[in-house]
Amino acid sequence: MTNPAPSEVARAGSDRYRALDGLRAFAMVSVFLFHGALTSPRLAEFAPKLLAHLDTGVQVFFVLSGFLIYRPFVSAHLAGESIPSLRQYSVRRAARIFPAYWVALGVLVMFGSISVFGSPWRHITLTQSYFRDTGGAGLAVAWTLTVEVTFYVFAPLWSYVVRQFRQRPFVTELFGIAVLFGVGLAARLWSGWGTPPPAVMVLPTSLCTLSAGMLLAVLASESRRDEGLARHLARLGNPARWWWLAAAALFAVECALPYGFFRATSSEIMRDQLLRVPIAFLLVVPGVFGDGGTIRRVLQSAPMVFLGVVSYGIYLWHTSVINEFHTYSAIHQDLQFVVAFFVTLAVATASWYLLERPVLRLAHRRTR
Fold first, then answer.
1. Structural domain boundaries enclosing 172
2. How does residue 83 score in pLDDT terms, banded at 50, 70 and 90?
3. Rounded distance, CA 146 to CA 158, Å?
4. Is residue 309 a part of any domain in this protein?
5. pLDDT, tens digit, 9 for 90 and up, residues 255-273
6. H-helix or E-strand spanning residue 240
7. CA–CA separation, 317 vs 311, rounded Å?
8. What does the alpha-carbon distance between residue 317 and residue 290 come to, in Å, rounded to a whole number?
9. For 321-354, what is each residue's pLDDT tens digit?
10. How many domains does the chain have?
11. Phi-psi category of 159—alpha, beta or left, where left has phi over 0 and alpha has psi -120 to 50?
12. Is residue 286 part of a domain?
């Protein structure tokens, strides 16, 4: 999963959002554990109910995207300024998500780790989720990238819509967030108890978590103009442990409820998906509001920040690396999972320094 690069976050909102890099790392590790558990009998035996829900990290990514992507647009709206340059925005978003994805897709197809047949352009353009026949499995995580790309297009369009209501922009933004959350909830219910078109399964079903991040963007932007709100939000974000304890309590409830995993019923999937929205929101809140504390120090530590920086590469490569070790490696199954993580980290680090960072720097120079 990809969000704005750390340098972009710094430009957008100063060092107080440095914990968001650590949150990306936290979400990435949880997703890696989820997929790793599928090939590790020891992990699956140790805590099956816990591991079955660790892909909640994907929802954390969506909340982060809602916050980071929408924040420049809502900040401009509330300040009565012009929206950011759409040319700069489009070039930088494309540079962030496509080059690394294309390299991973090409390499993995070439080595036979994944299949793309029939309509490879659907995978190349990240539009495969809009078709019932996706034309091959492609990257296992690509469906989330399709959601990201669609949200990249949606965010400036939505910003244009809400800017047409010129009276009380803050209230307008909050009302708009409520509308988006309602649409997301309706789409999620439709997907659970009906057969919606493929397009409904892309952005609409993810609007609950994306709008949660957008809500944080609206509050953070308004707090820059309203000192009273800023003080209240700062107090609300401290201490971070209460937010994470609440998230842990909801996660424990999620793990305790019946869930068939590979054979889950529609009701179980629906309940599971809806519980993930507040869990992800609660995890991200102290990364946006408040300061200090052990949790934020851990999230802002050098190892967590580094993992957050290279998290997109880990996200792209980890399922294929795990599967290759599980299929062909003579290493003991319990060690395969550990070795696969460090191999994936090495590949992701190379991807960041040799490809992602140079491309992002070029994109920024070209659009400056």
1. 6-367
2. confident
3. 18
4. yes
5. 888 887 667 788 888 888 8
6. helix 240-256
7. 10
8. 34
9. 998 887 776 677 767 888 899 999 999 999 999 9
10. 1
11. alpha
12. yes
